[in-house]
Specification:
With about 425 residues, the chain is α/β, with parallel strands linked by helices. The protein has helices at about 5-25, 30-40, 55-65, 100-115, 130-140, 140-145, 155-160, 160-170, 185, 205-210, 220-230, 290-305, 335-340, 345-355, 375-385, 390-395, 415-420, and strands at about 45-50, 70-75, 90, 120-125, 180, 195-200, 215-220, 235-240, 250-260, 265-275, 280-285, 310-315, 320-330, 370, 405.
Length: about 425
């Protein structure tokens, strides 16, 4: 390729040339091919990611890669985004949603193959809501014989129960919206419930998989019963008082890694500016201080003696003038790459822990940069502008030149192209 006299085009030329070198033979590997790739690595510890579907998992692989670690990525779909990262060793696996025992047996075998290469595998679970139950059922001790753990997966599995989280928050006096189990007693109560309520699955993602919704908003006892009958028969649910800041959710996210043995917790705070989907999907976020959220998060994590990576979601209640904990997600989250961009690489912290090394004692967060899921945000913004719900100025105002993209990155560009071609925004 002919070099350009202009620095931008020279840089682009080098990037395209590097892409041709890195990706021209990119195919998912068989186990013997995986071993060949692993033997050539200059790293003693090899993270193994259980799935590589979207921005969460891609951010994990890139978080490792920014510190010089390649990651073995397991997925049943050859189009898994993380497969196309230059920091990934892609390996096709059984489908963990349909062949759970076969999948975990495969994971164990992968770890054994890595051990045969003289390396130490570290297990990293991506899609916790789908995987933790089957992982515990398969046997954590079996996997511990092969893998290094830097998470308490048993506790994380228990904490998938959002009602349990509410009960633990009450014990330690961390404020949450009022929450109830959805059972016959609640459905037939004569108590005046504080509508509107959000109806959510108590644990897991089966309701989301079936309906595409994270929560259902109900405004009366009749709507509550109708929602349970129509959408959630046989699914364990909770009802949570909806908190709204005059109709605008003011959502704060606290990412954290806690080392139980050393009683060290590293945290990162950000605020959601826009979402692509109601209840739970961020399109634009900003790195921002939130001392109250950090204090509450630390208090809650210390109380439950958490070990590993997680995200705590908070919402500001304008009526009570205080921050409330919505839930803890026992995994790293979609906007974690913003934390990496701002100086706190949670994935590397987890690797340091697995390697027996000390974590940094204090946060060194950079405030101001944004996280942007560009294609989804642009598509959603255009719909809102067409409907008169948003002006072009409103859309542009919170954007910044200092941002990290949730999928598209110049130093790892192919996943962004694959995501665009797949039509996944």
């Amino acid at each position: 390729m002919i070099a350009s006299p202009y620095s931008f085009f020279q840089s682009l030329s080098r990037e395209i040339g590097q892409m041709q070198t890195d990706y021209r033979n990119l195919v998912a590997l068989e186990q013997d091919e995986m071993q060949t790739a692993i033997r050539g690595l200059r790293q003693e510890y090899v993270p193994v990611l259980t799935d590589g579907a979207f921005a969460n998992q891609l951010a994990i692989v890139r978080g490792h890669g920014k510190e010089g670690f390649m990651t073995v990525v397991l997925d049943a779909d050859a189009r898994a985004l993380a497969f196309y990262s230059r920091f990934a060793i892609p390996v096709l696996s059984p489908d963990y949603k349909t062949n759970v025992v076969e999948f975990w047996s495969f994971v164990q075998t992968v770890g054994e193959k890595i051990r045969e290469c003289g390396k130490t595998p570290i297990l990293t679970v991506g899609d916790a809501e789908w995987l933790l139950d089957s992982m515990v059922e398969f046997g954590l001790q079996k996997l511990r014989q092969v893998y290094v753990f830097n998470q308490d997966y048993s506790l994380q599995q228990q904490l998938m129960d959002k009602y349990l989280q509410y009960q633990e928050a009450i014990k330690v006096e961390v404020d949450m919206p009022h929450t109830w189990e959805v059972d016959d007693q609640l459905l037939n109560t004569e108590e005046a419930l504080p509508f509107p309520l959000l109806i959510k699955e108590r644990r897991g993602k089966s309701l989301f998989a079936a309906t595409g919704k994270q929560a259902f908003e109900v405004h009366s006892p009749g709507e509550l019963k109708e929602t349970v009958v129509n959408f959630a028969r046989g699914v364990s649910l909770i009802a949570q008082q909806k908190i709204s800041d005059d109709g605008r959710e003011n959502m704060v996210s606290i990412g954290a890694y806690r080392d139980r043995k050393r009683q060290t917790t590293v945290m990162f705070s950000s605020r959601r500016l826009r979402g692509t989907r109601e209840y739970g999907s961020t399109a634009l976020a900003v790195s921002e201080p939130c001392p109250e959220g950090l204090e509450m998060a630390r208090k809650f994590l210390d109380h439950i003696d958490y070990y590993g990576s997680c995200e705590l979601e908070f919402i500001y209640d304008s009526k009570q003038k205080k921050l409330l904990l919505l839930e803890l997600n026992p995994r790293l989250y979609k906007t974690q790459s913003l934390a990496t961009h701002c100086g706190i690489n949670f994935n590397y912290l987890a690797l340091l822990n697995a390697m027996g090394k000390q974590l940094p004692g204090e946060n060194s967060q950079i405030y101001g940069p944004r996280w942007w899921l560009a294609w989804g945000d642009v598509a959603n913004g255009m719909r809102k502008m067409q409907n008169g719900e948003m002006s072009f100025r409103d859309f542009m105002e919170p954007l910044s030149f200092d941002f990290v993209n949730g999928v598209d990155e110049l130093d790892d560009p192919l996943p962004g192209f694959v995501n665009l071609f797949n039509g996944k925004f």
